[in-house]
Design goal:
This protein has 194 residues and is of the alpha+beta class. It has helices at residues 31-46, 127-143, and strands at residues 7-15, 18-26, 53-62, 70-71, 77-78, 92-100, 103-110, 118-119, 122-123, 144-151, 159-165, 168-171, 176-177.
């Protein structure tokens, strides 16, 4: 019996001495389509990424198959936002909130953005940068699902995941403060009391 297919693309970023990941649930029916979609998302993501940050690795996997991954080099490359002297510290991110169906709790934290796109912790982009973020949003709407935890109509289990088309996204006015954790977004682990 063959496994169902739900592609997830993961982008690995590097900025200074730190790294982080971003994952996207892709609408493609197979690996090759998902690799093309991930490359399109990466191109739009690089357009809002400061020049000193880069995508260093990317792959697509089927969430229903343990341990598989198909890497692609077509997503790799440095940020292409041309006019910024530096990027904002990586603990700060533009929080994109995605809407799908009646839910809007899905978030992506966009790190490595140009430092001049914020003022006193608020996201205040220039008009060209806002256009580039809109182009990134369009790629997500075109190529991605969002994953939502919803009640199961026929339990058990009580809750199940469903994948819903992205209807739109919006950046939050205030910057999100979120630790990058270990390199490439690995869990930080629990604090153990002495």
């Amino acid at each position: 019996m063959s496994s169902p297919f739900q592609g997830r693309g993961t982008l690995f970023f590097s900025g200074g001495s730190s790294g982080w990941t971003e994952s996207y649930y892709l609408i493609g029916p197979d690996y090759s389509t998902c690799l093309t979609q991930l490359a399109a998302i990466a191109a739009a993501r690089k357009a809002i990424l400061q020049l000193d940050c880069s995508i260093v690795h990317a792959f697509v996997s089927n969430i229903y198959v343990r341990g598989d991954s198909f890497p692609t080099n077509s997503a790799n490359g440095v940020g292409t936002w041309p006019t910024s002297p530096a990027f904002m510290p990586l603990d700060y991110a533009i929080q994109m909130t995605w809407t799908g169906g009646v839910y809007s709790r899905n978030k992506t934290f966009l790190r490595g953005f140009p430092i001049e796109m914020q003022t006193d912790g608020a996201y205040l982009p220039t008009s060209p940068y806002a256009t580039a973020v809109s182009n990134y949003e369009l790629e997500i709407v075109t190529n991605c699902y969002i994953r939502q935890l919803v009640p199961n109509p026929t339990p058990p289990p009580a809750m199940i995941y469903q994948f819903v088309a992205v209807l739109g996204g919006s950046p939050r006015f205030g910057l999100a403060r979120r630790k990058t954790g270990r390199p490439f977004g690995l869990p930080r682990g629990r604090l153990i009391a002495p």
